[in-house]
Amino acid sequence: MKLKKKIKKPEKARDKFVNLHVHTDHSVGVCITSGEEYIEEAVKLGQDSIAFTNYSSLSGVVHYTKIAKKHGIKSIIGC
After folding, report:
1. What is the pLDDT of residues 41-79, one digit of tens each?
2. Three-state SS sequence of 57-79
């Protein structure tokens, strides 16, 4: 799934929360949510960063990092 349009961030985010433990559909058997969905939600909430911490896999990291950067979100990578 690709984000169809650039999402506008809210002018002022209420909270400066950052998800530091996010598993995507690249964590086989753990999660079915795509990185794009997490990025979209982070933008809607006014967050400026998100950490992708898939189990035993770095697949998808480059793809999701490019999408996050396009939407003004810093991608933090972990495994």
Report:
1. 999 888 889 999 888 888 888 899 999 999 999 999 887
2. CCCCHHHHHHHHHHCCCEEEEEC
Half-sphere exposure of 14 (CA within 13 A, CB side): 2
DSSP code per residue over 38-56: HHHHHHHTT--EEEEE-TT
| Residues 75 and 43: beta-carbon distance below 8 Å | no
pTM score: 0.74
| CB within 8 Å of 16: residues ≥ 6 apart | 47
